[in-house]
Write a structure and sequence with these properties.
The complex is a heterodimer.
Chain A: H1 5-13, E1 31-37, H2 41-51, E2 59-62, E3 78-79, H3 89-106, E4 117-121, H4 124-139, E5 145-148, H5 149-155, E6 170-174, E7 178-179, H6 182-195, E8 199-201, E9 206-212, E10 215-221, E11 224-233, H7 239-244, E12 253-265, E13 273-276, E14 281-285, E15 290-301, H8 309-322, E16 331-342, E17 348-351, E18 357-361, H9 367-384, H10 398-401
Parallel strand pairs in A: 1-2, 1-11, 2-8, 4-13, 11-18
Antiparallel strand pairs in A: 3-7, 4-6, 5-6, 9-10, 10-11, 12-15, 12-16, 13-14, 14-15, 17-18
Helix pairs in contact in A: 2-6, 2-9, 3-9
Chain B: E1 2-5, E2 9-12, E3 17-21, H1 35-44, E4 52-58, E5 66-72, E6 78-83, H2 84-94
Antiparallel strand pairs in B: 1-2, 3-4, 4-5, 5-6
Classes of the chains: A alpha/beta, B alpha+beta.
Chain lengths: ~425, ~100
């Protein structure tokens, strides 16, 4: 079933009776060549690229709950490639390029909207830092523009330019960045993977790994044993719990809660994404009109999928400092997700000490924008046993070897990344 | 969250800053044979449990003491707190 304008018109004319479920709901087979643990964005994207780009067969995705029920369904939908370090920026730019062709490739409307992201500058030192970042982005093939105060004023005249403590002095703009419909991304990858023959098995919790002679043979699940040649784990905030089942629970990862917020629907006011450079606050406006925004993680280990009030206050203060008119908007919803915060703020896509067991984790706040490249790079690793060139720095043993990728330079303190 | 400070009674968690797993109190011996491996473990690896977690909180906006707080990471319920100093001295006495 391909989606097209003609298909929509035909269904409209025939009472919408021709639509079918987007994917099958198969029972698990006794064994697969590849088992992906985790039916979120990264797991589904991995299965999709394994089956399409890397032409592998006999693939299953195991999901404890329903597809896309974790962080892919609860983020602030921003896509961007404005990183600094050589280990990160080529990977995120690869992801940005995949976003640009994604909907045509998997024939599904993920509402990818390149509306631009503006990182605001509030001091001369910050301008220097952002100029350096912009140059690093352009060296990696991304786009970046440094705006002065008037350039920012032309885009968003209502920002609080003359804040006594944090006046706005300019901004770093990436025009190709933007937003995407987060659920649509998961559904598009799920449908694409299903069409390519991947078994998407929901309500199937992994309860153990069968490891013989240092090699993984399959996974024990709530629906019985499933044999596997290779197992890829992409379970975000649950990484430590799942890997503990394979005896690898002690990882350079802490799980933390990150909250997100949506206001009531408002008339169009923000046509891009804006980040406040003096606090931690980022905001965009959804197509329904709600202001979608967020800030820091709560800062202590959590598996609760909800946060507490102090961070809500902190985020609201950031919003008020940046755009005082936000004080007139009422909050509609607040929710939380569990981030797999790594020790240097950068992800891990690598083999593990168990042969045939592979790990995709440590995405911190940044998992959504990375979804396409993460899936592609993880599929590359699973299919070829070599890292994708843009993800070669994301080794599990880089902490032991001292090759950290610490964008913020705050050290091994996950709640500061 | 309210943290039951052993000297000051229940205090708002906002007065504290969070460091992490209380195992950080057990600093490895830098002169031992396996110092490199044990410092790698100490600095970078975490158990990250879902459930009870003993963790270090610093009463920065209060009496500037370090507490070891026992908290459930699934429910955020705090089950107890003691001075990190008391814990370390007790462990030293036991050893």
């Amino acid at each position: 079933m391909r989606f097209s304008v003609f298909r929509v018109l035909r269904e409209a004319a025939t009472g919408h009776r021709g639509w079918r479920p987007l994917w099958r709901n198969p029972d698990p087979q006794p064994g697969y060549d590849y088992v992906i643990v985790g039916g979120g964005g990264h797991g589904l994207a991995t299965a999709y690229y394994l089956a399409t780009t890397f032409r592998q067969a006999r693939i299953a995705v195991l999901e404890k709950s329903w597809l896309g029920s974790g962080n892919i369904g609860r983020n602030t939908t921003i896509i961007r490639s404005n990183y600094l370090l050589p280990g990160n920026e080529p990977f995120y730019e690869f992801s940005m390029k995949l976003w640009e062709g994604l909907e045509q490739e998997f024939n599904f409307n993920a509402m990818v909207s390149q509306r631009g992201i503006l990182n605001l500058i509030h001091s001369d030192g910050q301008r220097d830092a952002y100029r350096r970042r912009g140059n690093a982005m352009r060296l990696a093939g991304a786009d970046a523009e440094l705006l002065d105060r008037d350039g920012v004023r032309a885009m968003y005249p209502w920002l609080n330019f003359d804040h006594a403590r944090f006046p706005i002095k300019g901004g770093l703009l990436q025009r190709r960045a933007g937003t995407a419909r987060h659920d649509g991304v998961a559904w598009g990858y799920a449908r694409g993977a299903d069409l390519a023959g991947v078994d998407l098995i929901q309500n199937c919790e992994v309860t153990g790994f069968r490891i013989e002679g240092g090699r993984v043979r399959g996974v024990e699940t709530s629906r019985g044993f499933i044999g596997a040649g290779k197992v890829g784990v992409a379970v975000a905030g649950s990484t430590s719990r799942v890997m503990a089942l394979a005896g690898l629970g002690r990882l350079p990862i802490e799980s933390h809660a990150l909250q997100a917020f949506v206001s009531e629907g408002l008339k169009p006011v923000i046509d891009g994404v804006i980040t406040f450079g003096a606090g931690h606050f980022y905001v965009s406006q959804s197509d329904k009109g709600g202001l979608v925004f967020g800030g820091d993680i709560d800062g202590y280990n959590s598996y609760a999928q909800r946060g507490n009030l102090p961070v809500i206050e902190d985020v609201a203060e950031g919003g008020m400092a940046l755009m005082p008119m936000i004080g007139r908007a009422r909050l509609l919803r607040i929710w939380g997700g569990i981030m797999d915060m790594s020790m240097d703020g950068s992800p891990i896509i690598d083999r593990t000490p168990v042969e045939g067991l592979y790990l995709n984790a440590g995405w911190c706040y940044g998992g959504f924008k990375a979804t396409p490249a993460s899936g592609h790079a993880f599929a590359h690793l699973l299919a070829t046993d070599t890292p994708h060139p843009t993800a070669a720095a994301y080794r599990l043993d880089r902490f032991r070897r001292g090759w950290l990728i610490d964008e913020k330079g705050v050290g091994a303190q996950p709640n500061l990344h | 969250m309210l943290i039951p400070h052993p000297l000051l009674g229940p205090r708002d968690a906002q007065e504290f800053t969070y460091l992490g797993d209380a195992r950080l109190l057990d600093r490895p011996d830098g002169l031992a044979e396996d110092a490199e491996a044990s410092f790698f473990d100490h600095v970078y690896l975490r158990d990250n449990p879902a459930g009870l977690h003993r963790e270090l909180w610093f009463h920065e906006q209060g009496d500037r003491s370090w507490l070891v707080v026992t908290r459930d990471t699934v429910t955020h319920e705090i089950l107890g707190a003691e001075l990190a100093r008391d814990l370390v001295l007790r462990n030293r006495g036991a050893a």
